[in-house]
Write a structure and sequence with these properties.
By secondary structure, this protein is α/β, with parallel strands linked by helices. The protein has 11 helices and 8 strands.
């Protein structure tokens, strides 16, 4: 009997330790290092930039466009940096410059070359993006669109109800509610069964990173958004199901345009359906700019 009791205690202890280690690692993943820069990859001039977000110094790039029509502030995904290997930021830069965009891309706190010790899946990243928007306004008076993928898309969605000085938002493969998303999909990231690990992992994430999972709810922000939002999501996304974008659309159908694109993989729509993806982006931006221009002309 004593051996059984000791065995149970050991198992419970191991579950607890494994869960805390996993939760810790999830909020402190290994930083992805920068490999290139816009000059090396594309031959375009850029500026190394930095700005403060809370106590952290945020690093990034600003790529001006001579005949700019708007500015894109880009947010990367989880486990990434401003180069965004999942979607290839250099391809994004090329495509957006064709449309007449200045581009600001940056490393979230705890990622890339920015200061900070942890990743919070939108909780503190929202502040980073807010400060990036403020910085972009010091570089150009062009209308600002915020654009993100995956975690960066969820962060972009979180900001849509916070600002009245952005023209629109483009979100590629976001989640709608961090806690409910992780509750259903944590195994995709950890390869552990929901019971008994999940509650302890959640607790570990919150304690070690100082975040509150219940407060990362892009759906609430989108519901109250006053700016137009373009959502795009691959139907075969194995990391964040396309139904997450459908949930966001349902909260505010008047302000949200959604396109579910037939392809597999996470944030692979630009790679696999380039023409459709860029047509969505171009039409969305042009429509917003045209509408804003009419409003300005009317007010004058």
């Amino acid at each position: 009997m004593m051996k059984i009791i000791i065995g149970v205690i050991v198992i419970v202890f191991l579950i607890y330790i494994i869960s805390w280690i996993v939760g810790y690692i999830m909020t402190r993943p290994k930083r992805a290092k920068l490999k290139y820069n816009p000059k090396e990859k594309l031959g375009v001039d850029y500026e190394d930039i930095e700005f403060k977000s809370g106590k952290n110094l945020i690093k990034g790039w600003y790529i001006p466009c001579k005949d700019n029509r708007f500015t894109i502030v880009y947010s990367h995904g989880y486990l990434e940096n401003r180069e965004s290997s999942t979607i290839d930021i250099y391809r994004v830069i090329e495509e957006m410059r064709k449309l007449g965009a200045n581009i600001l891309c940056f490393d979230f706190s705890g990622s890339g070359e920015s200061e900070g010790y942890c990743v919070t899946c939108g909780y503190r990243e929202k502040m980073d993006l807010m400060n990036a928007i403020d910085f972009a306004k010091t570089k150009s008076t062009a209308p600002i669109f915020i654009y993100g993928i995956s975690m960066g898309a969820a962060t972009t969605a979180l900001v849509t109800s916070e600002r009245d000085d952005i023209a629109g938002a483009i979100c590629d493969s976001p989640f709608s509610n961090l806690k409910s998303y992780l509750s259903a999909n944590l195994g995709v990231w950890t390869h552990l069964p929901k019971f008994p690990f999940q509650p302890i992992i959640f607790r570990a994430m919150e304690k070690t990173a100082g975040l509150t999972l219940d407060k990362v709810v892009p759906a609430e922000s989108v519901k109250n958004s006053k700016v137009p939002i373009l959502l795009m999501h691959g139907k075969g996304d194995h990391l964040i199901p396309y139904t997450e974008s459908e949930k966001l659309k349902e909260t505010n159908p008047d302000m949200v345009t959604l396109d579910i694109i037939e392809n597999n993989g996470h944030c692979k729509s630009l790679e696999k359906e380039r023409d459709r993806y860029m047509e969505n982006v171009s039409n969305f931006i042009n429509k917003v700019l045209e509408k804003n221009s009419r409003i300005v002309d009317k007010n004058i």
